[in-house]
Specification:
The protein is mainly beta. The chain has two helices and seven strands. The protein is 10% helix and 36% strand. The chain has a seven-stranded mixed β-sheet.
């Protein structure tokens, strides 16, 4: 999928996050079907994902939010997670490979 970045705050999981946290918002296409009615109780909240960029920069990222414009496989990352995967602000978007831990 594609990696983009956002300025985190209070996410759909009910946690307040900072730009320095290693976190992601995942696609609504993945998040919404698991929603038990209260998004704070979504079983995907807190799950970890291992991502790489072209097989480099392995980075563990925690799910804390849903991305309403992402398609399945895309992640909207905190600036810290985006940078850990080698992203630059000027770049804005790049391809990643991810798997659930």
């Amino acid at each position: 999928g594609d990696a983009t970045y956002f300025d985190p705050g209070l996410g759909s999981c009910g946690w307040d996050n900072k730009s320095t946290d290693m976190i992601a918002a995942i696609s609504y296409q993945v998040m919404d079907p698991k929603n038990p009615g209260n998004p704070n109780l979504n079983p995907l909240c807190g799950k970890q994902i291992l991502c790489t960029r072209e097989g480099k920069n392995p980075t563990v990222i925690k799910v804390v939010d849903r991305c309403p414009v992402c398609v399945a496989g895309d992640l909207d990352l905190s600036p810290a997670a985006y940078a850990a995967l080698g992203g630059t602000i000027a770049e804005g978007r790049f391809r990643i490979q991810c798997s659930w831990l």
